């Protein structure tokens, strides 16, 4: 029986996904790091500290360390997300539905903990979650399943009792590797990506999420 639902954050709870690229470009330009949007594919799936460490090897610069640059990017995206971000359609309804029906609810994100807590507090959704896990606390980020397994364990749930809600291919792979059911909610641009066939269900929006969707996964 499924009794636990794990949410991703960027692109699933909050429309912060495109803001990452903007913040990375802004801070890279400040430090004269030769990064453009065409370089982002080189670091897809890496956590921000891993991204800037990669930059420091591949595109070395003078001055700030890779950790300092990562912290600047985090400061920038947290500020940008508070100004320009929003809770995506259907999120609150889905959280209310799960809470009212006795499900355990977790948040498992590859974003750093200080960003997660700053944003879920800012948007007033912290209290919905029984556990908030960041990939900071595991050795590897998504597509490794560690952050999902950490979150489930903290709530006393078996992976077989869990459903993951994700918007990305890497997140979907992480959920499946954790032996959890996965519902994907891709953005419009990536909705028809054939790789999402690996998911157990696909929705166009969390507005389409209901208990029947979960029951079909049992």
Q: Could you write a compact summary of the structure shown?
A:
The chain is of the alpha/beta class.
Explained architecture:
Helix 3 runs parallel beside helix 5 (113-122). The radius of gyration is 17 Å and the shape is globular. Strand 2, helix 5 and strand 3 (131-134) form a beta-alpha-beta unit. It is of the alpha/beta class and 218 residues long. The mean pLDDT is 95. The protein is built from eight helices and six strands, in the order βααααβαβαβαββα. The chain has helices spanning 17-30, 48-58, 66-84, 91-100, 113-122, 146-154, 169-177, 211-215; strands spanning 4-7, 104-109, 131-134, 162-166, 181-184, 201-202. The chain has a six-stranded parallel beta sheet, sandwiched between helices.
What composes the largest sheet? 6 strands, parallel
What would you report as the Rg, rounded to the nearest angstrom?
A: 17 Å
Largest sheet, order of strands side by side? 3-2-1-4-5-6
**H/E series, N to C?**
EHHHHEHEHEHEEH
- The percent range for strand residues is 5-15%
Distance between the termini: 7 Å
Q: What is the mean predicted local confidence, pLDDT?
A: 95
Number of E-type strands: 6
Quaternary form: single chain
Q: Which structural class is indicated by helix and strand composition?
A: alpha/beta
Helix percent reads 25-40%
Low-confidence stretches: none
The number of distinct helices, counting runs of at least 4 residues, comes to 8
Could you say which overall geometry the principal axes of the C-alpha atoms support?
globular
């Amino acid at each position: 029986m499924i009794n636990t639902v794990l949410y991703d954050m960027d692109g699933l709870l909050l429309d912060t996904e495109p803001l990452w690229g903007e913040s990375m470009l802004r801070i890279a330009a400040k430090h004269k790091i030769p990064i453009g949007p065409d370089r982002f594919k080189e670091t897809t799936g890496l956590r921000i500290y891993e991204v800037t460490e990669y930059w420091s090897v591949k595109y070395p610069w003078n001055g700030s360390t890779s950790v300092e640059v990562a912290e600047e990017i985090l400061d920038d995206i947290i500020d940008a997300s508070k100004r320009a971000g929003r809770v995506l359609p259907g999120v609150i309804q889905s959280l209310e539905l799960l809470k009212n029906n006795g499900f355990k609810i977790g948040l498992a994100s590859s974003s750093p903990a200080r960003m997660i807590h700053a944003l879920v507090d800012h948007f007033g959704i912290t209290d919905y979650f029984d556990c908030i896990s960041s990939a900071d606390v595991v050795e590897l980020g998504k597509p490794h399943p560690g952050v999902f397994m950490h979150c489930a364990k903290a709530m006393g749930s078996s992976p077989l009792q869990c459903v993951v809600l994700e918007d990305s291919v890497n997140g979907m792979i992480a959920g499946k590797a954790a032996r959890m059911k996965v519902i994907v909610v891709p953005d419009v641009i990536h909705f028809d990506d054939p790789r999402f066939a690996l998911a157990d269900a696909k929705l166009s929006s969390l507005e389409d999420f209901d208990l029947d969707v979960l029951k079909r996964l049992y």
